Amino acid sequence: MEPIRFQKNEAAAQAIQTYYGRRPYVFTRSFGCQQSVNDGEKITGVLVDLGFGVCEEEEQADLIVFNTCAVREHAEHRVFGNIGALKTLKEKNPHLLIAVCGCMTQQESVVEKLKKSYPYVDIVFGTNGIDLLPGLILEKLTDRKRVLPKPVERRDIVEEIPIRRDSSYRAFLPIMYGCDNFCSYCIVPYVRGRERSRKSADILAEFCQLVDAGYKDITLLGQNVNSYGKGLDEEIDFSRLLQMLDQIPGDHRIRFMTSHPKDATYQLVDTIAQSQHISHHFHLPVQSGSNEILQKMNRKYTVESYLDLIHYAKERVPDMTYSSDIIVGFPGETEEDFRRTEALVREVEYMQLFTFIYSKRGGTVAATLPDDTPHKEKADRIARLIAIQDEIVDKLTQKMLGTTVKVLVEGPGRKEGVFTGRLDNNMVVEFEGDAPEGQFAQILLTSAKGAVLKGNLIK
Ligand code: 5AD
Ligand code: SF4
């Protein structure tokens, strides 16, 4: 299917001018993953294109956009709390418009709740409707009624949406949208729809623009980057796409997330090993170290096949670091299952581990499974896992001391005279000395505290 090319809605721009009678300001707040952050940057971009300025405080805004996440229940509660707090702003400023979008609003129950209990929310739109926002604003301003359509699944890919990036040196670049995996705990396939890949020419064009504009750290995004290319007319897969992007000259690094272990290939590891720009870091979420739980999660790989790939990568790319997501307390997880997760974590030695207590999501298969592990037990398990992880990070960072690393400088830190930067695996490095933000610097590592490394700038 050919992508749609974004076009500015001039009638909406005109209606906004008339409604506010001056330059209005937008405040966009994004919750959730990098994909959501990137959507937020596009939402702001579209609004700037319509004549909005950008403000950093809700109180100064004429339009507030909450771009939400649905992946865990407590995140949803938090968003509802935050929307509730907007009521007083609306009372103070009747011209204020409030829009809610993102993964939460792809669920009909959420739109119903907003309709009924949050009368000051004016506009709702979904994850794949950013280009439609100007039309919704126009509808709101013309009819003076709330615009809260039922969520729909839209498969179009829309290219050339204006974007206002949060950073001038780190950028997200989506290569595909949606997810077809239906892991039994996960809401994403229901809220982001089926997998769709962008054409490689569109990705390459955006990539080159970023490199030309001086971006140093470009993260390719997708719910499952390893299935990139499925359904496209061209003969391409993720490794081939990486090889293509790796040819672009310049002083930048390429990262990608997220990989699904069932689709991550040995060839991908080879591609990383042979590349100029791809960071030696692999985020490969395992979720559990028990084959029974993996099966109940519908993950479609085994602990053995996962470890085989990790061992291959460790051999092929000796300085690679690893990170993972783990869900603790999935329905039916026994102490024995959990011990297998502990063993796996000890074996892989991840540099970063993102641990979550299982959160029941309505509409998913796991929500129908009996879950009789008490919350306290789950909390104990996650604490045990975090303690193991802390030990591993200490061990790994101690080994790095005395080596020189390349960091992307993020600017002055909280302490006077101390700057921060990031390694290509996203670890934070603090160092003394002044180095230009958004440029690479060489740092000699001298000490480590938890996951934060410290060192000195090498001139
Ligand atoms: N409960 C807890 N964690 C979840 N994740 C996704 N769905 C759930 C859920 N229902 C975690 C997974 C995923 C990460 C982004 O969030 O570990 O990899
Ligand atoms: Fe991202 Fe998933 Fe949250 Fe949507 S539900 S914002 S895809 S983490």
UniProtKB/TrEMBL annotation:
S-adenosyl-L-methionine listed as a keyword: yes
Binding, [4Fe-4S] cluster 1: 33, 69, 103
SMART domains: Elp3 (SM00729)
Locations listed in the record: Cytoplasm
PROSITE patterns: MTTASE_N, MTTASE_RADICAL, RADICAL_SAM, TRAM
Keyword Iron: yes
Cofactor annotation comment: Binds 2 [4Fe-4S] clusters. One cluster is coordinated with 3 cysteines and an exchangeable S-adenosyl-L-methionine.
Family: Belongs to the methylthiotransferase family. MiaB subfamily.
InterPro entries, per the entry: Elp3/MiaA/NifB-like_rSAM, Methylthiotransferase, Methylthiotransferase_CS, Methylthiotransferase_N, Methylthiotransferase_N_sf, MiaB_methiolase, rSAM, rSAM_horseshoe
Top-level class of the enzyme under EC nomenclature: transferase
Catalysed reactions, as listed in the record: N(6)-dimethylallyladenosine(37) in tRNA + (sulfur carrier)-SH + AH2 + 2 S-adenosyl-L-methionine = 2-methylsulfanyl-N(6)-dimethylallyladenosine(37) in tRNA + (sulfur carrier)-H + 5'-deoxyadenosine + L-methionine + A + S-adenosyl-L-homocysteine + 2 H(+)
Entry function: Catalyzes the methylthiolation of N6-(dimethylallyl)adenosine (i(6)A), leading to the formation of 2-methylthio-N6-(dimethylallyl)adenosine (ms(2)i(6)A) at position 37 in tRNAs that read codons beginning with uridine.
Keywords for this protein: 4Fe-4S, Cytoplasm, Iron, Iron-sulfur, Metal-binding, S-adenosyl-L-methionine, Transferase, tRNA processing
Domain MTTase N-terminal, residue spans: 24-142
List of residues binding [4Fe-4S] cluster 2: 179, 183, 186
Cofactor(s) annotated in UniProt: [4Fe-4S] cluster
UniProt domain TRAM: residue ranges: 398-459
One GO MF term: tRNA-2-methylthio-N(6)-dimethylallyladenosine(37) synthase activity
Protein name (Swiss-Prot/TrEMBL): tRNA-2-methylthio-N(6)-dimethylallyladenosine synthase
Family matches, as Pfam families: Radical_SAM, TRAM, UPF0004
Subunit structure: Monomer.
Domain of life: Bacteria
Enzyme Commission identifier(s): 2.8.4.3
Xref: Gene3D superfamilies: Methylthiotransferase, N-terminal domain, tm_1862 like domain
